[in-house]
Amino acid sequence: MMRRLLSLLIVVSCVAGCHTPTIPNPNDPAQSGPLSIDNITDQLDSASDGLALHRDKREINELQYEMVMAQYARQLLVGFSLQKMEGGKAFKYGKALITAQMWPEAKQALQVAVDEAKLAHNEDRRINDSLRLARVMAEMGDAKAAIETARTTFDAKPRDSAPVLLGVLYDITPRARLHGLDVELGKLLEDAIEVNSKVLVDPTSKEGALFLNARPRHVRIAWDTIISLYTDANRSDLVAKAKLKAQEMADGPRFDHPTSL
User: Fold this and answer.
1) pTM of the predicted model, to two decimals?
2) Which of 1.10.1070, 3.40.720, 2.60.40, 1.25.40 would CATH assign to domain 122-261?
């Protein structure tokens, strides 16, 4: 298995540039610094596209995909320093460090990214980077901080809040479970569903149409997850309430045609 994964690492290197990544040599004056974050991002995107083909063909599973991408990202990030991040690009470093599964470094980079987004009044970046930061906190076992950080995105305006439910449901909750905060996670998801119900999108755009078509399915998955969390917490009272809310939502006005931009 390890030989297979190593061979795939060579494959993704070739896909990214038909050569293994050029890793800076600290003893070579001509290669005195790390790769630029734009270079790293481009190579990771290309490698991901190539490796995803193997995953889609079921030649590897999701865990193996993540392992190979992590190893490749760590190679590209040789020489990385938090003190030398390019200004305004902390979010790119954060994404690359998540891929590399370098959690402490990713946490610090994303904290900078969130601060940069706030200073620039960039709500898209603030929401997405805060959700990524919460995911990293969950990866590091700090479920309480992950929940608190995720909640900071719930004040997003309807036109900016599309990523909230997806981030909480798929990135944060699976990694924050089993830390004794299942009830808090369930309530986080319930509130994320409420945020999601008010999202405004342009239904004539490709992205808007995709969001509207997928929204009922994501909400159903979210309610199933909430019920599972409350069940694991032995809270039959909350399970009953969640089932009732889920049914009321299913029977009520659908999300397919909300008020649009």
Assistant:
1) 0.86
2) 1.25.40
